Every structure is written in structure tokens, then in C-alpha cells.
Amino acid sequence: MDHASPFIHPDRPVPRRRPLKAWRHMQNLIADKEDTAEVFYIIEALNGKSTRKDLARFMKSENGPKLLEKRRFLPDILDDHGPLKSLPKGSVGRAYVEFMEREGLTAGGLVEESLIQRAHQKTYDDDLLWYSNRLRDTHDMYHVLTGYGRDALGEDALLGYTHSQHGGLGVSFIAYMGNRQIAKEAPKEARVKEVLAEGRRNGKAAKRIIEQDIIALLDQPIEEVRERLNIKKPVLYREALEVFKHYELNPQLAAA
């Protein structure tokens, strides 16, 4: 198999953008920030061919073809917390398991959410499906490596970071609208618009996380990995959290 040309099932339709559908789902998300399925619907409605283009870029990277050939299912490894807890303090894997347990998350949880979203559509067992799953399964690892938390502003800034690394109008739209909602309630000193801009800059400056061998990173010191991948500290985001703390505000201000 020529990994330079990923297999996309010939019956898979080429997605078209549906802005009105995206707007309806965005209104639903604003009304109920806990309904994370709306995020999948918005991305589906606006991303168009962006995931196909992103996969093509992935296949041109040094690790992309090798990672596709292995086709490792990351949730099985990332949800096996015992081995991760045995890794040295300060390693990527140890930081990841501590983050997941602190937040009450599992990699399998995102899998379940995506399966619910996909229940209404036909799926195709091809390389594009594998790549879409990899994007999903590395989401929380992005949190750990970039330093953006799961509060509303942290999720929003991470969306900006992700858009810079992968593109996708849907992702950019959610980041913009989420930032708008947060800005309505946040103190001006938090500079939430600048926090999103910083996330976009950091994502653009860094090497692409999706192209890294995630399993090979687990036992490596996280600060060394960040330096190697040029992942810059989220300075403005951390300053914003301090502003929220000063005003005794919950950082979960709005849907992101």
C-alpha cells in the first residue's frame, strides 16, 4: 500500500458546507454549553474538505505514513492508567493520567460521544476515518502539552491553537463565537480576545502534535517535549485565570 496516497473510500461523499445548519447548532450550544454533541455538528457543517487536506499534509510528514501503517488505537493505551502512573513525575504520560483523573475524563468518553454523533450517518472504513479518530483521541493530550485547561477560556484558546495546526472553518467559527460569549461576561483585564489570538499564534509556531508518535512521548519529560515541539507557554491565558481569581469569578463563564 502506498501510504503517500491515503485510501479514501470511493463511496464517501465530499462534504459541503452548510452555514445555516452550523448557525442553528451554534445557537443550541450557546443555550446548553453541556451539549458537546453540538460541537461535532457545527464542525461537520462547516469544515468541508479541510480534514481531507489535513490528512494529505499528515501523510507528507516524516511520521505520518509510519503512524498510519501501525494504526494504533490510542484510547486503549491512554485509558490504561496503571502503566502511566508508574512513569516518572514530570513525564508526558504521568502528566496526562493526572490530568484525566483530576478532570474525571477517559479517552473512551470522547469515543462514545463521537459514535453517538455518527449514528445518523454512514461511516466508511478508510484512512480518513482513522485520521478523524486520531484527531479526536489526541484532544486531551493537546490540553496536557499546551497547558490550556478545560475551563471555557482554555477550551476556546485550544480551539484557536487547533485551528492553526489543522484548519477547518467549523473549528475557527466555534472558537470565535465562544470567545464572544466569554467576553460578554469576563472583566476587560482578562483580555479574552487576546488569549484566543495567543492560542492561534502558539499553534502556528509549534510543530504539529498530530504528527508525533504519542506513545513514544509518554515516558519523556514533558518540558523537553514542549521545547522540542516549540510549544510556547500560554502566558495571556494564565494571566486571565489570575484575573478571574481576583474577581472571584468562575472561569466557566460561557460555552466554549
What does it look like?
- By secondary structure, this protein is an all-alpha fold.
- It has one domain (about 20-245).
- The chain has 16 helices and no strands.
- The chain has helices at about 20-30, 35-45, 50-60, 65-70, 75-80, 80-85, 90-105, 105-120, 125-135, 140-145, 150-165, 170-185, 190-205, 215, 220-230, 235-245.
- The radius of gyration is 18 Å and the shape is globular.
Q: How would you summarize this macromolecular structure in one to three sentences?
A:
With 256 residues, this protein is mainly α. The protein has helices at 19-31, 37-46, 50-59, 64-70, 74-78, 81-85, 92-103, 107-118, 127-137, 139-146, 152-166, 169-185, 192-205, 214-217, 222-228, 235-246.
Helical residue percent band: 55-70%
How many structural units, i.e. domains? 1
Give average pLDDT, whole number: 92
Which structural class fits the helix and strand makeup? mainly alpha
Strand content: under 5%
The main β sheet shows up as: none
Number of strands: 0
Could you tell me the radius of gyration in angstroms?
18 Å
Low-confidence residue ranges? none
Dominant shape = globular
> How many angstroms does the end-to-end distance come to?
40 Å
Q: Helix and strand string, N-terminal first?
A: HHHHHHHHHHHHHHHH
* Contiguous helical run count: 16
Can you tag this structure with a few keywords?
single chain, 256 residues, mainly alpha, 16 helices, 63% helix
Secondary structure topology:
Blueprint: H1 19-31, H2 37-46, H3 50-59, H4 64-70, H5 74-78, H6 81-85, H7 92-103, H8 107-118, H9 127-137, H10 139-146, H11 152-166, H12 169-185, H13 192-205, H14 214-217, H15 222-228, H16 235-246
